[in-house]
Amino acid sequence: MGNRFPTETKRVTIADVAALAGVSKGTVSKFLGDGDYYIAEATRGRIAAAIAELDFQPNALARGLVRRRSQTVGVVVASVLNPLYPEMITGIDEVLGERGYTLIFGSTEGSSVKEADVIRSMQQRQVDGIVMASVTLQDAEVSQLVDAGLDVVLASRHMRRSDLVDAVIVDNEDGARQAVEHLIAHGHKRIGHLAGPQNVYPFEIRREVFERVMRQAGLPVNGLISVAESTRQESGAPAMAELLGADEPPTAVFVANDSLAIGAIEACAARGVRIPDDVAIVGFDNIWVAHLHGVQLTTVDSRAREIGRNAAHRLLDRIEARWNDGGHPHPVELRMLPTRLVRRGTCGCTPEPPDPLTGSSN
Amino acid sequence: MGNRFPTETKRVTIADVAALAGVSKGTVSKFLGDGDYYIAEATRGRIAAAIAELDFQPNALARGLVRRRSQTVGVVVASVLNPLYPEMITGIDEVLGERGYTLIFGSTEGSSVKEADVIRSMQQRQVDGIVMASVTLQDAEVSQLVDAGLDVVLASRHMRRSDLVDAVIVDNEDGARQAVEHLIAHGHKRIGHLAGPQNVYPFEIRREVFERVMRQAGLPVNGLISVAESTRQESGAPAMAELLGADEPPTAVFVANDSLAIGAIEACAARGVRIPDDVAIVGFDNIWVAHLHGVQLTTVDSRAREIGRNAAHRLLDRIEARWNDGGHPHPVELRMLPTRLVRRGTCGCTPEPPDPLTGSSN
DNA sequence: CCGGTATGGGAAACCGTTTTCCTACCGAGA
DNA sequence: TCTCGGTAGGAAAACGGTTTCCCATACCGG
User: Of 3.40.630.30, 3.40.50.1820, 3.40.50.2300, 3.90.930.12, which CATH number belongs to B172-302?
Assistant: First the structure.
């Protein structure tokens, strides 16, 4: 089984600092924390000097063990290859950094088994809470976690019952409505919908809205919906092909998210279908790729970065309330960010003012 | 300061399991670990039942504290908004997951202050090692960390002296050479280079190779190099503008990475410069965006995902060697992955076989 | 001179594991 | 009968911090 303590250069502990400063461990600890303890200026100086001298780094594991919180937050996403998530993670990371937390990352690759693993591992690591941007877990399972005492905030997704767990989302209803109405305003009659996986609530909503708006406009829906397996780009292509291959193919398609829309666009390119002339496309998310000159995807802004920031703040507020407000947790809240349609080329509009390279256009 | 133990539903500890199973904590612990201890089958059964009954989750903080390793690895990247990093992270995450480690994420946003913070925070969290894909730290600082006993593997970058710290990189020399020679083969005489930040070693190399190959071909180099501030897309545009605005602008440009190349392409689009007719472009990295129909960027494959996988394996091997092989660490190694030029549209070639939507083309 | 209050700091229990010893039993070989 | 080796499991000391008590002063007013 090898040596117990190999090469490992001896670590500096609080006891070493205490010894050097000529005080007790307890006093050093008081100095470290920000609690308002009485410590003489002279003592403070000696401790600070000792810490500097030894280059002492407190062991967060030990601290977490006794404090029963780790100053650590889990973030679980489906895949970091969809640019939506990097944007969200950037927002989350910013806030976590500002507020002194560390980010533990987990990716599920769309597998609910992996998702469960990741979450369990995070729990064992004593994360103070989790931001879930992943999507495979059932509502019941999520609220089970919450019931078990884990702080969770859903980002960019929410549950049917919105009073069980915090969520920060974009206004899917309104966004989808804008998208579909815009296509209608362009004069399209046969509008298709390339839907996302239907066990994912936001995609369900986008689909429902699509159907509703179409009906209200007196337009047909039958045979115009194609459901993608996953949200991965690749699955956009076959789904789009299905739509395009119909007897009476749509002249416009509202795609459930940009990642799929990219796939759809590629599928069009592959078959020589011109956009927007032969078919107009509107996506959802406004990932940065959408604004590229060679893409020009009209899409609904998902405000991923802000969702991330909001979700992180929300989670940390909840976590900290648990410790400060005598254990009275915040009420559950569903925060919905307004959104808008960003008109670019694929819907047939002439693009908005260039919107140059800002990475995200918020 | 609030209550010490608020809402917090009482956690199940190993002691509870022990009590329920009618054994001592030590025995439960032995059952949990995979060490080869003698435990009677009957006892095993009772312990397993107790664990299931109580839904016991071992506290990784406590475990890490005594074991002096956290089964945790830090990953620090410059920015997760450059698609290169998500690809790399995916590779790292795969391996970490397979081998039972958890990923702690840190992003530096190009600030060396933030980078230092992130690393310090990871050290306090007792990460077992760090994969560094970030680039702002000086060589000396990195090797200082290593000297201090931290296991580090550099991913997609390395140091001037390659014998100080492990690194996994792509063959920058060869890749850059292929890129420049390809442009030369297309008949270009005035070839420019849009270089990355010159404090980052891979970018230095790419630039050196550019100059060398040009000289060897008897072509001019003077005034044909523009250096981008950072690797962010946005900084590609002004740098490209500089090149384009010269008295005798280049007819082809080798761009230090795809992210900058995207920015460069946008800059061209904005000024009505046609690609590849007015100016040919070759990038470096082969991020997935490069293969989009509307982009078709010819580029050198950086094999990000494999770099990630390799780096992770390398790090874990080193970590585990430290504990198993009597403390004799592996020798430092620089692993270099071969690479190739992926010919698409921006160099003037007719694209290779469609390479449809595989995310990465390895 | 005495009690009370603001300061300053030490002792020790505790967080939840792992691991090292130690003991104890059992069957076998001498 | 006496060891000895293989099994089985308990006791207790870590790991490196935090926090609760508790004890000393010093200084104040009365």
Answer: 3.40.50.2300
